[in-house]
Amino acid sequence: MTTLSPHNYIRPENYNHRRPVVTLMKSQEISKLVPYSGLILTVSLVVFFLVRYYFFENFLLPRFYGDIYTKLDDNRKRGFINHHVAAAAKIVMLITGAYPFFSVLAGSAPRLSQSFAGSKIVTLGDVLLVLNQVFIAMYVFELMFRAKLSPVAVAHHMGSVIIAAVAVAYSYNWKHHPDATLEFILCYLWGIFDVIAEFWPHVAIILLRMRPKDHEYLRKVFFSAMIVTFSGTVVETIVVLYFWGWAWDRWSLVFKILTPILHCIFTAAQLWGARNFYLMWTDQKKKLRSKDITAELGQPLESTEPQLVRLDVEQEKQRTS
């Protein structure tokens, strides 16, 4: 059980022992690197470019996928590259950020200035700040690189970038903002669910490009992507609002009003993604039925499929690009 040291936590008069300890954490400096966050973001964007151009685009993907990759049109090729870059970035962020984030969340690390993995230089806050900038760079890279994005994806990415940047800027004057550290942690809660819930959809689209004719396999892939996206949204809503509600007495009026509004926007974007995977799942089921009818009638697939399967072209591009 975490001891509520007055040096690390506040103890309100109406303290409830069931209250998450992290909601009592005192406002503090996130990292001494906060003034250099712009430089960290710039370096992160450069790394994204180098990894995308030299590793994925011109080395790994052509060699690993062959014609599957080279025969894609420019729009889908950009999307295919981005799904690999984003999936790799999310794996790195999850592995690197798990220890510092959950240490803070569980209360075992009440100070962000504590050392990271025994380092005499790097702190937990340093790692969380750098990953915050990598998260921003990931979405900025996608907004700049993708040839086509749906309006919902654009709104989600822009909102994520702005919220993550505001969390860092707000923490710069933490002495004047008693909820600055809590807001930074809340943004991390949003971010970690976003990273986890969006990882499998990246894999799903990659598998679509690899096995476009395997409708039984893709039906299972898209169904699982739909379930992961939807259930992730539900769990995220419960956890975020639980944290936000217990810390109610700590929030300024701005965050009491803004947090539920922003969460509704993010939830809508994630449910839209779940809806798209639902449509892709039903599309694969229709194609399977079409294939069965073709086998029974002994007619070529092309003669029966158009009458049974007809998705709007623009919707399909938005879902799979």
Automatic annotation (TrEMBL):
Regions crossing the membrane:
33-55, 85-109, 121-141, 153-172, 184-209, 221-245, 257-281
Question: Which superkingdom heads the taxonomic lineage of this protein's source?
Answer: Eukaryota
Entry keywords, A to Z? Membrane, Transmembrane, Transmembrane helix
Q: What is this protein called?
A: TLC domain-containing protein
What organism, scientifically named, is this protein from?
A: Phaeosphaeria nodorum (strain SN15 / ATCC MYA-4574 / FGSC 10173) (Glume blotch fungus)
